[in-house]
């Protein structure tokens, strides 16, 4: 394993946001609208490898119009959070898992993997520089967005020979507006997210670009998120546009779609499976059909369903709609198992509950 760590050159922002303005910004957080003072930039070229690691003032970057990513979308990203600890310190949650997934996404997109150690150091360097931006309200955190793209000026279709890796940070509150008690999903009948052999398991921008028309349809239908079905039978539930999905049954068991290469292997998903199994809950990673979902919701066999991800944390699903069907789950609000898992996870993340799996790294 490559354990390269470069020395980061630090250039402080000459004119950072003042403390009073920052406090005002942190008082009214949604998702993805407010950004911190600094960013990380690391360059890669085929001849020199990774070099020129910097923490510098956040700002626009210049790209040539023939920059490869603008044409062929060779781009990947990650999403993880830094949390404020009760004593005022800062912590990361399972950042090594994001480093691993980033390297796997890079491989799928024919990009050079950034060494895990360098990825982790870049995250720590940015959080240290901008730690005053970590909000301390419950449900708030500093969302970190590492990403990497083909920066070579070249229009031929082949893997680029130059890349930029960057990290930006955005203080964030609830992903869904108004911190709604539950969300309504829209089942697209036309669009799928990923097929076998495709890029579904990679966190590449193209997956999200391809999902937007279905997400727009969901919004137009008055729903919060699209839920995608499998591309072969148009039947099995895969995941939402930016979250994995779980089902909770009357016998106390949980089920979630299996990782088969077409869905993102969510770190929240994996953490919740672990926490549930620790608590003696049976968790099945097995396909679940939309027809079965509807029947189980109607019969009461299905008691709860929830979406999960770094941005969405754990969000109850209250209702599911599609062309010709519309059903509610339980009483349409948060269920008990959903709420228990959400609380367990967020208490570990915020350092107020024990961390039996060593998921939290204090910075
Ligand atoms: N599925 C998709 C398509 C996502 O974009 C995300 C968010 O990152 C997830 C699932 C959940 O992954 P994680 O829990 O690692 O954030
Ligand atoms: C995340 O949860 O980190 C994601 O990338 C999902 C996106 C919808 C913000």
Automatic annotation (TrEMBL):
Cofactor dependency: pyridoxal 5'-phosphate
N6-(pyridoxal phosphate)lysine, modified sites: 203
Catalytic activity: L-leucine + 2-oxoglutarate = 4-methyl-2-oxopentanoate + L-glutamate; L-valine + 2-oxoglutarate = 3-methyl-2-oxobutanoate + L-glutamate; L-isoleucine + 2-oxoglutarate = (S)-3-methyl-2-oxopentanoate + L-glutamate
EC number: 2.6.1.42
Gene Ontology molecular functions: branched-chain-amino-acid transaminase activity
Keyword Isomerase recorded: no
Example GO BP: L-leucine biosynthetic process
Metabolic or biological pathway: Amino-acid biosynthesis; L-leucine biosynthesis; L-leucine from 3-methyl-2-oxobutanoate: step 4/4; Amino-acid biosynthesis; L-isoleucine biosynthesis; L-isoleucine from 2-oxobutanoate: step 4/4; Amino-acid biosynthesis; L-valine biosynthesis; L-valine from pyruvate: step 4/4
Free-text function comment from the UniProt entry: Acts on leucine, isoleucine and valine.
Protein name: Branched-chain-amino-acid aminotransferase
Lineage of producing organism: Bacteria, Pseudomonadati, Pseudomonadota, Alphaproteobacteria, Sphingomonadales
